[in-house]
Amino acid sequence: MAEVEEQVRHPSEETTDESEEEDSEEEPKLKYERLSNGMTEILQNDAASCMTVHDKFLALGTHFGKVFLLDIQGNITQKFEISSVKINQISLDESGEYVGICSEDGKVQVFGLYTREGFHENFDCPIKVVALHPQFTRSNYKQFVTGGNKLLLYERNWLNRWKTSVLHEGEGTITNIKWRANLIAWANNVGVKIYDISTKQRITNVLRDNVSLRPDMYPCSLCWKDNTTLIVGWGSSIKICVVKERNPTEMRDLPSRYVEIVSAFETEFFICGLAPLADQLVTLFFVKENSDQMDEELCARPRLDIIQPLPESCEEISSDALTVRNFQDNECRDYRLEHSEGESLFYIISPKDIVVAKERDQDDHIDWLVQKKKYEEALMAAEISFKNIKRHDVQKIGMEYINHLVNTRDYDSAARKCVKVLGKNMELWENEVYRFKTIGQLKAISQYLPRGDLRLRPAIYEMILHEFLKTDYEGFATLIREWPGDLYNNMAIVQAVTDHLKRDPTNSTLLTTLAELYTYDQRYDRALEIYLRLRHKDVYQLIHKHNLFSSIEDKIVLLMDFDKEKAVDMLLDNEDKISIDKVVEELADRPELLHVYLHKLFKRDHHKGQKYHERQIGLYAEYDRPNLLPFLRDSTHCPLEKALEICQQRNFVEETVFLLSRMGNCRRALQMIMEELADVDKAIEFAKDQDDAELWDDLISYSIDKPPFITGLLNNIGTHVDPILLIRRIKEGMEIPNLRDSLVKILHDYNLQILLREGCKKILVADSLSLLQKMHRTQMRGVRVDEENICESCHATILPSDMAKTFNVVVFHCRHMFHKECLPSSGTIPGLQFCNICSAKRRGPGSGILEMKK
């Protein structure tokens, strides 16, 4: 089949470049091919008058009375010489085994394609249409109908003779018949009728709307969408009729079925043919347009539209103008539309041309997207439907997309698409890399190169690294960080970086990258030297990751200078690899760093660095006095005399007071607080901590001539020393600030103490009573004595085997049981006995709670 020239064009009143560009953005719904091969030869010498489509073949009738059977590609398979004049109609049953033919000279033939047996008759008037029963092959009656000036039904009776019945007449020539299941629809000059052959009733009459049009020039188009839906197109109007079952209660003398028109609307042009497409309609239109030179209408190209029917209108989905041969000479009656239900093929029949329209498949959709340079959508469509596409390959579409992006200079997008399109094809990858090198865009593709299990040759990666090293140090460093070290020859890249460093020895980016390369090459000592030189944050990670502690023993000061906190934490976390003594030795000349290290060591463990505690006193005094006193409090290995000497030299009063009190010289410590600090609150706090009456007496004696101190003592002494001792020693007439408030506070504190004591007493009495009651209830409970209990003295069963004999048993509150005769004498207090076991264990004597006699 050859493609139709100018096959799709949207008609409009005024076609402009802008409108054409807009229309071209809408994808066509159908594609078109001209039916060629044997069809071309037929139409060169003859003209098509009618055609019928079967799923397996085509049947074409010509103006010279011939009928041709062709395959789907248009090749002739059979030829029948039926008449010398125009073939009006060809009808096939569903099986495609029987054919019915009628011609303009009144001939009607119905025969089997494989048997040649059937009906042959000549009428004295033209027969316009013939229609076989859809199940003609299987039916015993072999029914068919013909239409001329009347509608005749033919069926074979039991004697194998043909019986004729007139179904309708008197309304002019019958121009179209469509038979579906048990329903026959036909059109005459008046309208469209439907006949139910099962009930032998005519169901309805759909009148023609525009009676001004000649029926022979603008024939009616009929099409069954399904067994109950008939589509009628006549002139410029379309009606969709649905055959429904009538309610039995409404039937009376009416037919059992009726027709409801569910949609009726007008179109812009004259209808030549109709065909269903899912819930839409494919409509063939005859178009006339005005001539520019003469005041007359000329035949334009026919239009094939897809429309969506609505109850009173329609919505145009697509519209294609078709350039068929000799369209200028054709009338509305010269066009027909036939369709193949099995494959959704639509045949546009004209006298000198037959065009096949078919729904566009995924390959066609991709073609259109590529043509419009919508490569992203084309690639996505191909990936989604890769199992259904036949003419396209996902990778080829992807390569076209990459080429398009490169041509439009969108190099980054082109490189990014390589990951998806090239996939695991290493050969294509290398070709693309060299192409990007040729156009000077290696940087664009570098970040997308394969670097997992599938890899390119090392030379490819080295080529890109050398390119970056020439022009972009930062990009080079990024690639070295992101790419695994085994992608390329590490030694070659190290040498290249070294050469560049000779020209720029202080470039930190190149130095950092060189350190990373040394790390990949496991030359950690060189990497460490560079990191320390640059004070790089990754130096600690490098040491930890590769266990380089032996390499940093002589670099501890450098590490501390870089980041004291991280360095100390690392050293303390790895004491087994770098000993405390080694660190102290290295930091001996840097006491401020040594203090930081020893301070953190002491915080972690008060005993690990005990031999350095004496040195730490001076370090704290010099660099960190706020932590000196906490250190003196927490350390048990600090020499107090040395500490006292240092604190006295530096006049550290608080630390000296603490050391004096710790060495037992509390009076001297209190004196320093009073004399040097002059802080009565601190002196009182110190006296409280020591809880020594002599200290309180010294404090009172020192404060007795200092009114502010007396006020402080009166406010705080009440709970520790009898305030009377202080009050009695105050000189008469001495003016004491806030004396009244202080005395009120003393009285308040005294009352509070009295209340607390009374409250405690009440709680004690209540608890004692409760416990006594609980003990009384416990001791009043009965105790079970049975054969399993034994005497704790003789270990015999507590109850005799003969219960008839007299026996005495003593049970104590502690639940120990004895035979009375096994207990010793009552002792000094007559009648009072004690449990021998509990008395021996010093649990306190238990008196007998029960004495059983019998």
From TrEMBL:
<dbReference type="InterPro" id="IPR000547">
    <property type="entry name" value="Clathrin_H-chain/VPS_repeat"/>
</dbReference>
<dbReference type="InterPro" id="IPR057780">
    <property type="entry name" value="Beta-prop_Vps41"/>
</dbReference>
<keyword id="KW-0968">Cytoplasmic vesicle</keyword>
<keyword id="KW-0479">Metal-binding</keyword>
<keyword id="KW-0862">Zinc</keyword>
<keyword id="KW-0653">Protein transport</keyword>
<feature type="region of interest" description="Disordered">
    <location>
        <begin position="1"/>
        <end position="30"/>
    </location>
</feature>
<keyword id="KW-0333">Golgi apparatus</keyword>
<keyword id="KW-0472">Membrane</keyword>
<comment type="function">
    <text>Plays a role in vesicle-mediated protein trafficking to lysosomal compartments including the endocytic membrane transport pathways.</text>
</comment>
<dbReference type="GO" id="GO:0006623">
    <property type="term" value="P:protein targeting to vacuole"/>
</dbReference>
<keyword id="KW-0813">Transport</keyword>
<dbReference type="GO" id="GO:0031901">
    <property type="term" value="C:early endosome membrane"/>
</dbReference>
<keyword id="KW-0963">Cytoplasm</keyword>
<dbReference type="InterPro" id="IPR001841">
    <property type="entry name" value="Znf_RING"/>
</dbReference>
<dbReference type="GO" id="GO:0030136">
    <property type="term" value="C:clathrin-coated vesicle"/>
</dbReference>
<keyword id="KW-0072">Autophagy</keyword>
<dbReference type="Pfam" id="PF23411">
    <property type="entry name" value="Beta-prop_Vps41"/>
</dbReference>
<comment type="similarity">
    <text>Belongs to the VPS41 family.</text>
</comment>
<feature type="compositionally biased region" description="Acidic residues">
    <location>
        <begin position="14"/>
        <end position="26"/>
    </location>
</feature>
<dbReference type="Pfam" id="PF23555">
    <property type="entry name" value="zf-RING_Vps41"/>
</dbReference>
<dbReference type="InterPro" id="IPR036322">
    <property type="entry name" value="WD40_repeat_dom_sf"/>
</dbReference>
<dbReference type="GO" id="GO:0016236">
    <property type="term" value="P:macroautophagy"/>
</dbReference>
<dbReference type="InterPro" id="IPR015943">
    <property type="entry name" value="WD40/YVTN_repeat-like_dom_sf"/>
</dbReference>
<dbReference type="GO" id="GO:0009267">
    <property type="term" value="P:cellular response to starvation"/>
</dbReference>
<dbReference type="InterPro" id="IPR045111">
    <property type="entry name" value="Vps41/Vps8"/>
</dbReference>
<dbReference type="InterPro" id="IPR057779">
    <property type="entry name" value="Znf_RING_Vps41"/>
</dbReference>
<feature type="repeat" description="CHCR">
    <location>
        <begin position="568"/>
        <end position="712"/>
    </location>
</feature>
<protein>
    <recommendedName>
        <fullName>Vacuolar protein sorting-associated protein 41 homolog</fullName>
    </recommendedName>
</protein>
<dbReference type="GO" id="GO:0030897">
    <property type="term" value="C:HOPS complex"/>
</dbReference>
<dbReference type="GO" id="GO:0005829">
    <property type="term" value="C:cytosol"/>
</dbReference>
<dbReference type="InterPro" id="IPR016902">
    <property type="entry name" value="Vps41"/>
</dbReference>
<dbReference type="GO" id="GO:0005794">
    <property type="term" value="C:Golgi apparatus"/>
</dbReference>
<keyword id="KW-0967">Endosome</keyword>
<dbReference type="InterPro" id="IPR011990">
    <property type="entry name" value="TPR-like_helical_dom_sf"/>
</dbReference>
<keyword id="KW-0458">Lysosome</keyword>
<dbReference type="Pfam" id="PF23556">
    <property type="entry name" value="TPR_Vps41"/>
</dbReference>
<dbReference type="GO" id="GO:0005765">
    <property type="term" value="C:lysosomal membrane"/>
</dbReference>
<keyword id="KW-0863">Zinc-finger</keyword>
<dbReference type="GO" id="GO:0034058">
    <property type="term" value="P:endosomal vesicle fusion"/>
</dbReference>
<feature type="domain" description="RING-type">
    <location>
        <begin position="791"/>
        <end position="839"/>
    </location>
</feature>
<feature type="compositionally biased region" description="Basic and acidic residues">
    <location>
        <begin position="1"/>
        <end position="13"/>
    </location>
</feature>
